[in-house]
Structures are given as C-alpha cells and as structure tokens.
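[Meeting: bench + compute handoff]

Bench side (C.D.) handed over the final construct sequence. Compute side (W.E.) agreed to return the predicted structure before the next meeting so the bench team could plan truncations. Sequence as handed over:
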Amino acid sequence: MPKLTGGEIIARTLTNYGVEYAAGIPGHGAWAMLDGFLQDGAKVPVLQVFHEQSAVHMADGYWRVTGRPMTAMTSIGPGATNTVIGLATAFADSTSLLAITGGPARHMKGHGIMQELDRYRSNDFPRVVEPVTKRHWEVGTVEELPFVLHRAFNAMLTGRPGPVHIEVPMDIQALRAEVELHDLERRLPVGEVHPDPDAIERAARLLHGAKRPVLAVGGGVITAEAAAELRALAEALNAPVVNTWHGKGAFPEDHPLYAGPVGQTGTTAGNTIGSSADVVVAIGCKFTDWSASSYRQGISFSMPPGKLIQIDIDPGEIGKNYPAEVGIVSHARPALAALVAAVGGDTPGREEYMAELAGLKKEWEEQNAKRADSEETPFTSQRPLRDLRRALPRDGIVIAGSGNTQGAVKQSFPVYEPRTHHTSGTFSAMGWAVPAAIGAKLGRPDQKVVCIVGDGDFLQTSQELGVVAQHGIPVVFLVQNNSGYMSIRGGQRKITDRHLISEFTRNGEPYTVDIANLAKSYGVDSEKVTESEKLQPALEKALAAEGPAVVEVMTSRDAAGPWVPGWWDFPVPGYIEDERQSEYWEERAEEQHQ
C-alpha cells in the first residue's frame, strides 16, 4: 500500500472519483491539503476564488448543470465560516457538493489557537455547519480518511441530494500513513428506488376519475433525469403541467400542455390551472410557500377539495404541506414510468379543458407583452429577457439571481430543456448567481451560459469577475441595474407605504455603481445599454465573444419586477389599523397548511 499524507489522499481520491474541479482560497489551515494537489497522482485543477462563499456557490452551479459533484476547499476559521451561506443554499435547494475545510491540529484542539472556536466546545466549527449539510465528518486519523471520503460521496450521490462537509485537522493533512484508496463504484448502491405497485395502482385509479388533472413539477424531476417520462405522462393523461422555480425546464414551455409556473410570481394561467385541479400529481415538489402562494386556498392550489398524488424520494416531504391521497416514495423516473403504464393508452380528449388552457395562456401572453415589448427606458425587467431569449440558443443556460430578476425570469423567460434554468430558489441567497454561473460554464463548456442578475445581487460577489478574467471563462453577465433592492422596496411599500435601506441613494438622488466600468477594471469586456434599439445587438455581441462579457442594462425602479398573480404571507405591523390589517387576516384565514 502507498504511504500518503492526508493532503495526498484527498487529492488522489478526488482524481480517482472523477472530480473535474476544485475551488477555494489558501490559508494556513489548508496548506498541507492544497500541496497534495501538486503531488504525483493528483489531476484535479484547483481554481482560486476571491471569497470562500463563491467557491461553494461555484460547486453548486456545477452540480446543477451536470449532476456531478465539485469540491470547495478552504482554511480554518473565517475561511471555513464563509462557506456557510453556500452550504445553506445547496442544502435548501437539494444540490450536492463536497466542502473540505481545515481544522486545528489534534494536539492543539481546545487551546483557543488562532481561528479556533472553543468557548462552548473545543473546535466548535462543525456545529456551525451541521444544520446546513446532509452529513458532516471530523477526521480523527490519517488512516480513516479514505473511508470518510467514500462515505461523503455515498451521501452526496444517493437519496435526496445535499452538500456534505469534511473537516481535516492540519496535522492529519501533513502526516503520512499506509492506506488503501477505495473504489467508489463498489461503495455505492446500484439502481433506483422504485415505487410500491399498490400505490401506483391507487394513483392510476384516481387519475382515471379526474376531470381536471394537473402535473406539478419540482426540481426532483430534473435531478432524476425524468423529463421524458414526465412528458409521456402528461400526454397520456392530456393533463396540463405547472412548475415551481426548480421545476422550470423539466417540461418544454412551448408544449401545448405547458400551463406556466405557480406561486406568488407564477403566471395567471399557471395559478388558475393549478388552483382548479381536482387531482394534482406532484413530482419532486416541496410545495414551498413561494410556489404555493403561502398555501392560501384557490390561489395556486386547493387541496382539499383537490386530491394530491405526491411522488418524492424523501419520505419526509410526503404530506408535509398538503394531505396526500396517495404518497409514493420513489425516484421520479421509475415512478413516472410506472404511472404511464398504469393509466393506459386511451388519451382523454378534454376538449373544454384544453380550450380553457389555451385561452388562459393567450391572456397571459398579452398581459406580459405590455412589459416584454416595451420600448421605454430605463427598461422593464421583462424587455431584456425578451431580447435575450431571441439571441440565446435553445439549449442556452440561464442562471437567475434573487429578487425581481428571479421572479421575472420564472414567469417571462421560456426554457425548453432540463438543466438550462437555475436559481437559488428556496434559500434565495444574494451573491449566488455570479459564482454559480461560473460553475455552470465549467460544467457545460459547450453551452452558452448567461447570468441574469440585479445590481444589488451582483455586487455581493462581483469580485469573481476576476476569476473569469484570469481563466478566460466565457460567461455573459446580464446585470439589470435599478439602483437598489427593488423587490424589497416593493414589498415594504405594499405593506407600509414606505421603505427603508432598500434604495441606493446619495444626497437624496439615486446612486448607482458604474458596473460596466467596474467590469472593465477586472479586464472583462462590457457595455452599458440605455437605448432600446441597442439592447439585442449588445446581447448578441456578448454571446458571440470568446471570453467573459458584462451587459449592464439600466432598469426602471418602478417597472423593475415581475407580475404578482399569486399571494405571499406578509404580516402587517400591528400599528397599521386600516384595511390592510383586516385584509391580511382575512386572506391568512384561507391558508390550508395549518
């Protein structure tokens, strides 16, 4: 057996397990680990980022487009704690990645060495990441490191995806031992979790009696590579399809059965179809408050009286937010395939239902066109999306930031293929989109990748423009600059008629960072667009570039967001005693989750 240091074990194992990239920032707590990547047998390129949070977001974006894990590596202390937002985002959105951080040497543990958290428990950092990881390990010996690594990959690659974390003490990174590096293929289960046949039969019987069935699609369909089976079931039932944020792309949005997204920032068509369904088949869908309009009956869903067939790999999601008539624990692909076989080959006509769907979609398109086709400047949020869709290939990947751009992309930017739309939906972390887009491009170098992001979100991790500049990574950043956190301002104004710290101002006037020039200072080509006729040409030029590019689009503060056809539970402060207070409690009384 070879005699290897802990750093060499990590580097060689990641190489053997097919990891294509790692990212991070060096620190004294990771020196020996990083040096292992310069030794023989290590072939994983390590990218330097400018903030540890970005390394984790980058790995997150890589996973979302490939379904394969990437590694983020950092030092002890602040380097490690900077990973928490990235880990929480991946955990909430069920995406897999491996985070490896340094830790105090075992003989120094508990002495309060530099960057150790020790007041409540010696080396307390692992407790910080416990709530935001699927599994965590603290390595105690060099000899156990190969075992820990294959357990980490087993956790990432089975069941419901999620990030994992390994803390490797500094001495273990440097010490050598005779070890055997384990074969990953012999440490993973074979096959998928299949559904209970009795549950499939019960679901089929329910669907045979349905008049207005709807398929509600979450990210689990995309993770399970089940888009073909989803389409087969929709066509077999002649049932409309609605989607959550993470389900966007699982079903082609130019298909006649596509109804639209649901939720607070869904579409009028998607919400109407979803809320009037008598049977909802939910596949890999968590029913978050955003996607279910805070569970208010009749807005996005109505269960009851509608009946729910819920398919999920995680049994904890079954019946969590709505009662399930039939709960099916299974991977999405075999469950959908089994349902297709069970419902039979006689496709119902549902002529009136299909005509209603077509009419609702036409009404929505006419409503959306008022902003998407607007020639006004500063631009609406929807107009750049229209021009980008015209310029971007069908398989182009969009990474949407949080806030107004997130909602506008969800409802106004059609996508057609799985893994071509991604957003930090559940945790909705600002600062995610820029590094996630870089990770997406690393994972899919042959596809165009565009990061659509607001200025407030962009500025949180804009320093990662240095990464794309150094390595020539051709990501396009479409930055919608409206001088502030306008989605927050909109909510504040709706509830309280005023706002605080949501606008960027100087001396009472709008303040804006010159993002185009900021990009140029990093060595990235950029263009600021303020005129309608120059928007699409600027996007086409950026997409044709061989390197990274930034297109800054000056966006209206007052037409800067999505339409809001759904509902979201915003409590009204008690000192507001007008109709807003009574309306809130009347609407809250219609929520169905309690």
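W.E. noted at the follow-up: The chain has three domains: 3-187, 197-359, 373-554. C.D. will use this when planning the next construct.
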